[in-house]
Amino acid sequence: MKNLLSKALQAAQNSYSPYSKFKVGAAVELDNGEVVTGTNFENASYGLTMCAERIAIYIAQNRFPDAKIITLAIASPTLKNGILSPCGACREVMSEVVRKQGLDFRVIMQTPNDEFTLSTASELLPIAFRF
Ligand code: THU
Description:
Elements: H1 2-11, E1 25-30, E2 35-39, H2 52-63, E3 69-75, H3 88-101, E4 106-111, E5 115-120, H4 121-124
Parallel strand pairs: 3-4
Antiparallel strand pairs: 1-2, 1-3, 4-5
The chain binds tetrahydrodeoxyuridine.
């Protein structure tokens, strides 16, 4: 888990975040052994900013559509306190992955001092929207 978290932290170096100056990296581990990373990518219109988690998930789903996500790690070199936990929009996307693959996945969230908190996609969005 520390290994995946450090890959997320490393990926954050490629973050494009000139507005918030908050670099975020995400690393997705797939059941085929591949690891796909992503970073946040901000926009001058602010609202079009994309989070690291969604970029990593979408890249993984496009490159390996048949592979299942087993772990997602999120990290930032800029984190000062608290838990680096995914925003609501990312949770909806994570929930869609759970639905698609029929399997929940682990979420490793960075906390200060090289520590982390563990959860799962379903735990982070209980009673998710379905129709
Ligand atoms: N951000 C992420 O990439 N992931 C999260 O889970 C929360 C927020 C980004 C969006 C924006 O570029 C910056 O962090 C500050 O909100």
